[in-house]
Amino acid sequence: MKNCMNCNRPLTADEVAVHRKLVSREATRFMCKTCLAAYFNVPEEKIDQKIIQFKRQGCLLFAHDLTDFTTGDK
Ligand SMILES: [Zn+2]
Fold it and tell me: Measured between alpha carbons, how far is 28 from 57 in angstroms, rounded to an integer?
């Protein structure tokens, strides 16, 4: 289990994958979506939307979870 490099919260596989897509594919330390949103100065929902978008594109980093398009809804 990886933890966020900023706030130390345990990371989901989606958060690791979206960090790879948005920041660096070679990243070895990752941020949770809350910290990613702050890093890019966007609402957290934007990160959720990116996760859904990458899944719909069939991104291999998200291939483990192709059917789960709706998580993150509040
Ligand atoms: Zn964090």
Answer: 24
Q: Which tens digits make up the pLDDT trace of 13-71?
A: 999 999 999 999 999 999 999 999 999 999 999 999 999 999 888 877 776 554 544 44
Reference 61, options 34, 35, 23; nearest CA is 23
3-state secondary structure of 27: coil
Give pTM, 2 decimals: 0.78
Distance from the alpha carbon of residue 38 to the mean position of ligand 1, in angstroms: 9
Q: For the packed helices 33-40 and 13-22, what is the interaxial angle rounded to 10 degrees?
A: 20
CA of 5 to the centre of ligand 1 (A): 7
* Domain edges within the chain: 1-74
